[in-house]
Amino acid sequence: MKINRYFDHAVLKPNMTEQEVKDAIQLGIDYDVYSVCVRPCDIDLAVSMCKGTNTLVSCVLDFPHGDSSAEGKAALAELYAAKGVAEIDMVMNYGFARSGKWDEVKKGIEGVVQAAKKHGVGVKVIFESCELTVEEIKKGTEIAIEAGADFVKTSTGFAASGASEEAVQAMLDASKGRIKVKPSGGIRNFETAKKYVDMGAARLGVGFGSTPAICKGEESTEAY
């Protein structure tokens, strides 16, 4: 198993200097990860560095809280998609999800999907699953499918906890193969990464500091 090819190598810490970002992106390229997932301010840099490599560029949107308006999310998606990213990882308004305002949740996702698809860009929907019940996770998966997204994703990596078996299984059960699933946050060793792939995950969100450790079969001390 080439576990590295499941990785969206997350370069998302808000305090990173430009040199630290460059080093982290280069680390992802060196480990031949599927994509480097960067802050919006680093899209141009990442696209430039990844050109001609096997590593694509993804970016986050409305990260990490997901509480912009639907119109704001869509406008940002249009800007980011035009810059050359392959995928956008957007944060769902999970406060609305907890409120049962599913029409508003769907509207927020749909706007991003419509903007991204014009540029051939895929969309992942981050739930922040530690904040939701199993039933809310399942309902959110259905909403993401209806809105035309490509992936559902557990976590930003910046909340109280990241991916869990329970949350990933709920997404897989609800998806029934209609949308891909991405566990993210708290994946710090090969065993955990392989467990989620064996469950049916199509991609893994991994903090950039954990990529080498996981690939070497070691335990990462990365906070993400």
- The beta-strand count equals 8
**Would you list the SSEs in sequence order as H and E?**
EHEHEHEHHEHEHEHEH
Q: Flag low-confidence runs.
A: none
Distance between the termini: 23 Å
Gross morphology: globular
Order of strands in the sheet with most strands: 7-6-5-4-3-2-1-8
Strand residue percentage: 15-25%
Overall number of structural domains: 1
CATH topology: TIM Barrel
Overall pLDDT: 97
CATH superfamily, called what? Aldolase class I
Biggest sheet, in brief?
8 strands, parallel
What's the level 1 CATH class?
A: Alpha Beta
CATH architecture: Alpha-Beta Barrel
Radius of gyration of CA atoms, rounded to a whole number: 16 Å
Backbone structural class: alpha/beta
Roughly how much helix do the residues carry, as a percent range?
40-55%
Count of discrete alpha- or pi-helical segments spanning 4 or more residues: 9
